[in-house]
């Protein structure tokens, strides 16, 4: 029987790591590891590597290095983005629009923000997972 090629369909959970990333990161998985918050030489070298990476990313997207934040996961990133934007702009209004098919971390952040006094509008979606543009337009304040 011929061996079939594997088809991976769970990219929402994790993705294969690009070979270039593996090559760039390999030294830090072995001999060059260190806690970026430590004051010893290994920590200083790790911190230097992270800051160099921050500059590379910033340059690639025409951003300032101070605008680049590394997180440990998409969940952490979504929490930081949603809560950060909400609190940074609360003087402009405390209204957030989401759909019921957002990632669980977005739904949980929205619930948390609701407890903090934000108003959450939950748009419905059709059988294809799409929102209705007129419903969105009516929800915008």
From TrEMBL:
GO molecular function: cysteine desulfurase activity
Alphabetized InterPro entries for the sequence: Aminotrans_V_dom, PyrdxlP-dep_Trfase, PyrdxlP-dep_Trfase_major, PyrdxlP-dep_Trfase_small
Cofactor(s) annotated in UniProt: pyridoxal 5'-phosphate
Pfam family of the protein (one): Aminotran_5
UniProt domain Aminotransferase class V: residue ranges: 7-140
Catalytic activity, reaction form: (sulfur carrier)-H + L-cysteine = (sulfur carrier)-SH + L-alanine
UniProt similarity note: Belongs to the class-V pyridoxal-phosphate-dependent aminotransferase family. NifS/IscS subfamily.
Protein name: Cysteine desulfurase NifS
UniProt organism field: Candidatus Roizmanbacteria bacterium CG09_land_8_20_14_0_10_41_9
